[in-house]
Design goal:
alpha+beta; elongated; about 100 residues; about 30% helix; 5-stranded antiparallel sheet
Length: about 100
């Protein structure tokens, strides 16, 4: 079986939602870039933040074979485990849309 045929049979879902990232350190200026490097992330758009509180909000678009809850939970777990300066990721579950 050819790879192209296999890939055409696989179904991927795209989801977009808002996430609030709590961070520490000066790494915040690279926060959007490091989130873009996570598996399954298509786009990351900065939607604002509060530097004093150490939070930033992003619109994140994911591609996955999972459902929306599993995909954003995996995004959250990956962000916290891979980057020590990210202390928490809150997912706006009511903002998640199927794209």
């Amino acid at each position: 079986m050819k790879l192209l045929k296999i890939l055409s049979e696989v179904e991927f879902n795209k989801f977009e939602g808002m996430v609030k990232v709590t961070y520490e350190n000066e790494e915040a200026k690279y926060l959007g870039d490091v989130l873009r490097a996570l598996p399954g992330v298509l786009t990351v758009t900065d939607a604002g933040g509060d530097a004093e509180a150490g939070t930033k909000t992003f619109k994140v678009k994911l591609i996955t074979q999972k459902n929306s809850e599993e995909a954003f939970e995996a995004f959250k777990n990956n962000a916290i485990s891979k980057y020590s300066f990210i202390t928490n990721v809150e997912i706006g579950t009511e903002t998640i849309e199927d794209k």
